[in-house]
């Protein structure tokens, strides 16, 4: 089993920054794909960003169009953490942000149903 715990959420003004962190424990591996998803009030869970093992010791990164250029995903395999640096935040970014994980495998990196492990979420609120 894998356990994921998010932290770093909070209230910020539009244009501000926030750094989310996901701490993993249990049977995690450096080859796991790690992702961030968000879910606004009354909305479906949506992909934000992910980092996946290339197979040769490096990682690919993926971003939704709205996150690209503003958010940066990073991982520290020694510490078993995955961070999401969020810059130039907008009110529409307001949501609960979830960390997710799955073993290295084929399949869409954007599909939340492909991830088997989830954290409890951390609230991000951006004021206008």
Q: Name the average pLDDT.
A: 95
- Shape label: globular
**SSE string, helices as H and strands as E:** EEEEEEEEEEE
Oligomer: single chain
Low confidence ranges: none
Number of strands: 11
Q: What class would the helix/strand composition place it in?
A: mainly beta
- Span between N and C termini? 40 Å
Main beta sheet, described? 7 strands, mixed
**C-alpha-based Rg, rounded:** 14 Å
Secondary structure: helix percent: under 10%
Tell me the β content.
over 45%
Number of helices: 0
Topology:
Layout: E1 2-7, E2 10-13, E3 18-26, E4 33-39, E5 46-53, E6 59-63, E7 71-76, E8 81-86, E9 95-102, E10 117-118, E11 122-127
Structure description:
This protein has no helices and 11 strands. Strands 2, 4, 5, 6, 9, 10 and 11 form a 7-stranded mixed beta sheet that branches. Strands 1-3-8-7 form a 4-stranded antiparallel beta sheet, with no helix packed on it. It is globular, with a radius of gyration of 14 Å. With 128 residues, the protein is mainly β. The model has no long low-confidence stretch (mean pLDDT 95).
